[in-house]
Amino acid sequence: MFRRATGTTPLQYLKLLRLTQARVQLATGEDTMTTVALSVGYASSAQFSREFRRAFGRPPSAFKAPAGSDR
Q: Is residue 3 part of a domain?
């Protein structure tokens, strides 16, 4: 039923939610990519980076707010 309602499996849905939250944190915060990866449940920043790029087509660094910006 979940797949019919969302078009994806529960695990894929959860992963996309986590990565979307990470994208928001990267764009609005001053945390490092490692800190963001840990905060959304990834133990490995390399795995986080791979899955982020797969989901959004760009690396996490492309979404990182410049230091000192107030976005």
A: no
**CATH code of the domain containing 38:** 1.10.10
Paired tokens of 61: 């660094």
**Greatest pairwise CA separation for the chain in angstroms:** 46
d(CA 71, CA 59): 19
The answer to whether 51 and 37 have CB atoms below 8 angstroms apart is no
Q: What is the pLDDT of residues 19-62, one digit of tens each?
A: 999 999 999 988 899 999 999 999 999 999 999 999 999 999 99
pTM, rounded to two decimals? 0.84
Q: Is residue 54 part of a domain?
A: yes
With respect to residue 53, please indicate whether it lies within any of the assigned structural domains. Answer: yes
Q: CB burial class (10 A; 0-12, 13-18, 19+) of residue 47?
A: exposed
